[in-house]
Protein 1
Amino acid sequence: EGKNISVTIISGGGSVGGLVEVGDGHYVCTYTSPQTPSTNVMNITYANLWTHVSVHSIMVTVSAKKSSDVTMASPNSTITYILEYVCEGNDALRVVWINDTLPPELEYVSDSSGITPNISGRNISWRFENVDVGSHSITLKVRVRGYVTPGTNITNKFSVEYFDRFDREFYTESNTIMVNIIEQGTGGTPPTISGVPNVVVHYDAPYVLDLSPYVYDPDTDKENLTLILSDTLHASVSPSDNLKIVLNYPEYIGDTKAPYTRNLTITVSDGYGSSSQTITIYVLEDYPPQLVAPLSDVVFDEDCIYWAFNLDDYFKDPEGAVLEYYAIGMKNITVHIAENNSVRFSAVKNWYGMERITFVAYDPNPEHYYAKAQCVINVTVRPVNDPPVMLPISDIQCNCGENYTIDLSKYIYDVDNNFSSLSIIVKTKAEWSINGTILVLNYESPMVDEITISVSDGEYVVSETFNVTVGAVGAPKETFSAKRILPLLATIAAVIGAAVWALYRQRTVIDEVFLVYRDGTLIAHATRRLKPEYDEDIMAGMLTAIQDFVKDSFKDEAEWTLNKLEFGESSILITHGKHSYLAVVYKGRAGERLREKMDDALSEFEEKYAEVLENWDGVLDRFRGAREIIEKMLR
């Protein structure tokens, strides 16, 4: 260490040895004499004889840090303190005492030490022996007593007391933190953190982990959240981004050499509440995959398919492993990763907006602990103006001198505009007006009129034409000629015949099958027949009704097996499994056979994709073949 040592023996006659403290007390050595001096040897100096001096280490010192998951708390709420102590040097501590004397406003709830603490009054203490070099922490959970009044500042101090292995002196380090008490119900909804993967790092190589895809807070901007780490010696919050952490683990921690593992608890707080997740850090000799160039943000038009990039151009593995990929964070956007790792984007029909999507590259070798690299990008779908949709209006009959009304909202639809913002022109011989969505017609005399209704959104114009037969005042509104009544009778006969046949066969006709993940993501859809273009909105309505119903139903899974909804003239039957649910849209009677088919299909799906479902990353391509399973129900 650059220090010289000399030992002068002033009286011989025995062996010489013992502990030697050098300089400012930071170096501890054991000295053994190269010989046993005779009794007549006096004042012999052994200088710089390092072969006889064993340097143990820099004497261990300890730094103490304390953090809280909140800066504001209310009566009867809980506060989580992280008591961190860092042992610096190369040797373990012989004994460590952690002491926390709680202020009277707080009461002990639990801790993460794994041992039973000694609690005496408001004092809590933990005793550990042979504590290795590195960062250690205890998570202490306490409760604010109900009588504490808002405006109170609670100050909590903890101390670390320790002996090292070669010095019997007593050392103390301490740290203090303050929490302000506020009124109940003023803190909003606390943030959550979940889904953070375990991380593989190479020793002495900084690794940046973006936590933004795994953190959610409904009422606090992400830039106002705070991260608290259980190991501040090897993990730190990036100075440029409050939701990125930098990991840097050494080759050696004490006598432990890589490869080794360490746990890291990550707490996210909005100042009023918090959430935590503990992950495992694998410190290896192999390097994890690397992001060699950042992915660019993606922008494409509504209702389009966009091929963006090939992931192999952006991620590499220094060890030469063939990487695999997945994406997370999609709600309305679909990401398809092709076999050559090119990426295709699309979105829900008529949806536009922005989503943050995370692409993850990983080494599929389990011996490398599925080492990962990731990149987060913004994907924006630009709105595109769709033309209005106008459905056909049947010919009508009315009498002159009377108001005849038509509710245009049943026939006119625009996904991009409200009805009130559309321009509607009516070409007719009648006096007409529109009140809200109601078209009012009034004729002065009998006639046959051809009406054309044109709808414009400012860019597109669509029209529909129908006929109006206007009778005299008081005339019947319906006259049945043979030409009109025969098709009607044929329709009635067909309907009656169909009804009789259905009753006779007691047949169930399945029109649609939806296979949906438990978070509401559509995995696969099978239909009996193709629909006109405007029926896509009906399909979207069905799916929304199913998702809304199941959202609440999954909260009490123990009591929920099969449930039925009505949707217009059709019925919807829903059943759920461990990770997904199946919904069928049908006509007829829901007999036991239908329920058996649903259970069989869902069981087949969940058994076939059990491993994927357990930790699904949102990539629909992992469920190839799912549609074939549910299509069998239509046969």
Note: The longest strand covers residues 153-164.
Protein 2
Amino acid sequence: MPKSSKPLTWVDQELTNDNLPKNIKLNIELLLGEEDLKPKRKGTELPKRSMNAFFIYRKALDKELKNRGYYDLRMREKVKLAGMLWKSENREVKEICQQLASKAKNLLEQELNSTTNYFTPTSQPESSFNDYVWYLMCTNQFSEESINEKKERLRTNAKASVKLDASDSSSSMDEENFDESFNWRRMYMKLSRPISFVAKDRGVLWLDTADGIVNTHHWKTLDCDESEYGKVVFLDYVWWFDVWGNIPNVLPGIYDVIWRFKVNPNFRLQNLQFVTRVLEVFNEKLELKHGEPIETQTTHLMNSKIFELIAEGGNWVEYCLPYQITIPEERVIDSVRIPHSVEYRLYNHEDIKRGLWIDYVRLRIHKDDDEEEELEDQHRHIN
């Protein structure tokens, strides 16, 4: 199919200013070859065919990833993954990528603007390919320290599980068995999920001990079928109110901060202060050499009338704080990647507080940061 000789105004401006998103450039390179990105002469830029090729390719990639079980990835991660896989030296991975690009090219030739039947897989997912994909996702988005810390925690939990099942003589968990059964997809899900269960992390002043014996007249840990974790914290009564926690390894993006709680309609709560801090995680050597890490803090004083409305309903609510937090791209200092964590806090040191259940704090991608919608808008703009 001959290329269009008429350059698009939007594409022309974006490429001239070098503002075309890197993921679009990357995928056009993968699909059409690097030569198609080079202007033939000054003043001519990327033709419409190349832009349509990208969107056809993106649809095919999305279908392929879903077929292989990657339901949890956002579009920006899928696009980044495409580049990482393409550059891989793994023969099996390269063959799969080449087949995918070839099918996308054929689809482009058949129908530039087709919106259905983009890709029908012909083979079952290969376990080695899947494991390699999740390994790449982990190592390219999270620091080695974070991965090792989470891996050690999974190993500890696995050993504890084996001890509980000691009646089974076949149960054993040595290092070799753990490494053989290690699942990189599970690791990625653990690292990338921005949620903190308060009953699990236990960042509550005057909370009972782990076995629920001491200080049960202030805060209690209760079993709860309505909680994903299975436990929540319950405030009986307290004067010095303080709840805090940390969500590590948060990926770049714009997030809403969500608190899930329930209020007893027989009691009133007021003047509770919500605090959210975004901070870089330095190790001691970096802090000594480069000073304090960058951090930002946002606060919100909740209106007592909102608590009253929540209490009247008598149900669990997800309360979205009236601001967003921005997690910037990671910096690299002295060849060390600097991850970001989000600290949260809810406190009040005045008056008696009673009748509050808290389940979790989580981060939700803000809809304005949805790259899928952004790219579709760009596609509509160039047509």
Note: The longest strand covers residues 353-365.
